[in-house]
Amino acid sequence: MKKHAGIKIGLAGLGTVGQGVWKHLRSRKSELEARMGTTFSLERAAVRSLEKKRSIRISKKALTDDAMSIANDPQVDVLCELMGGTGHAYEVTKAALNNGKTVVTANKALLCHHGDKLFRLAKKKDAHIYFEASVAGGIPIIKALREGLVVNHFPLIYGILNGTCNYILTRMEREGKAFDTILDDARKLGYVEADESLDLDGWDAAHKTVIISYLAHGKWIPLKKMPVEGIRDVTLEDIQWAQRLGFKIKLLSLILRDFKKGHLFASVQPALVPKDMVLANVDGVFNAISVTGDIVGESVYIGRGAGQDATASAVISDVVDAGTAIAHGIMPEEPKNRDDLKLAKPEEVYRSFYIRLAVKDKPGVLAEVASVLADEGVSIGTVLQRPNGKKGSANLVLTTHLCSEAAMQAAVRKLNRRKALLNKPFLLRIADFAQRLG
Ligand code: NAP
Ligand code: HSE
Known about the structure:
Elements: E1 7-12, H1 16-27, H2 29-36, E2 40-46, E3 63-64, H3 67-71, E4 78-81, H4 88-98, E5 102-105, H5 108-125, E6 128-130, H6 141-148, E7 156-160, H7 163-175, H8 179-188, H9 196-200, H10 203-217, H11 236-245, E8 247-258, E9 263-274, E10 286-293, E11 297-304, H12 308-328, E12 342-343, E13 350-360, H13 365-375, E14 380-387, E15 393-400, E16 403-404, H14 405-416, E17 426-430, H15 433-436
Parallel strand pairs: 1-2, 1-4, 2-3, 4-5, 5-6, 9-12, 9-17
Antiparallel strand pairs: 7-8, 7-10, 8-9, 10-11, 13-15, 13-16, 13-17, 14-15
Helix pairs in contact: 1-12, 2-12, 4-5, 5-10, 7-8, 13-14
This protein binds NADP nicotinamide-adenine-dinucleotide phosphate and L-homoserine.
């Protein structure tokens, strides 16, 4: 083994992920050292409460409640930021980078909100950031994009990046139970984030989508420029309609790059996924990502998107890469920033749609709906109708062929003004990607 003074590792955060990292770095120490070509030591870990009981063995003197002291410790080479949040975690990460340290982080919110500044700071200070665990837990998607697929350009990436939503949608579909019932179970199992909106309103998936967009395209997409919707409005009825039509509903992250028009589009929205697509069959808390590279074609990655061991596995792969790089003096290049890359407006993107309408059940209503869609150039694919239990009304479900979001939104505005409509149309996008790539 090549001799090096040894890599000194500090952990800011020793909760679910931190304890997993501590435990597995220790249990596989000699194997990992052989891999890195140097030795390493776990120096210290920062926590909020020094009194809290931990599931790992750690000496009192290795614990501190001052994460900044680790970021400023000249002995520490690699700081693992495993605290979460965008406040103190940001300050600690900045301090570590200012000190030229390598930071390994699992914090998707931090990178989504401050990634641009942090990567610029890292470059300036000749410091480095590794972030495998920030997207899709144990799936090595960052490494795949960064290394395995390096020669490719990526016209299409889509994925299931939130395990909690996937768990809820899967159980609604399998058991025919309502959203609220399954959400309660997900809470009891500890799947739902303390801030439930992160999961249920699509923000957690959006954070991860922003990180993948940066890695694949060099562009940090501001969250406010991205359509983000969660799964709260998806009903059991939608799931059943989708099944009849040959789809499953998944919360889907989508990143489209149009190389001809020179623009990029990203969104997180519930979508109808054809049952024969691999992602339609990724159920429960699992995550999956499909990456289409212009040279390699499509590859699909499936695995555990969260949990102590899966996430620790990803953090440790970064620690080993960081240690190897430091020991051998070969540091990685970050993706080139493409600030000039334009974002497509959502209305410029073509999709197929699923529309659920509650309508008056009387002659001419279907023709009226069809004529509004036709006026906007929206072509209907299928039509289904069934009574909705209320006298004189029915539920109508239509799917469309590819049309622009702008045309669809114009049609929805017009439909909203029609007396035959009993509530606002509910729209879902269809993941018709085979059509898109020809
Ligand atoms: P967690 O269980 O809540 O652990 C957070 C840790 O940070 C705790 O040890 C806490 O101390 C410590 N901490 C918080 N604020 C601190 C402060 N101001 N100063 C010092 N220590 C502080 O969270 P987690 O689930 O391990 O998640 C950590 C990170 O990994 C987050 O960014 C999360 O998004 C990301 N992540 C988690 C998962 C997962 O499955 N859990 C998956 C992927 C990514 P105490 O222990 O004393 O409270
Ligand atoms: N809340 C996230 C999820 C945890 O459900 O996927 C992992 O990032």
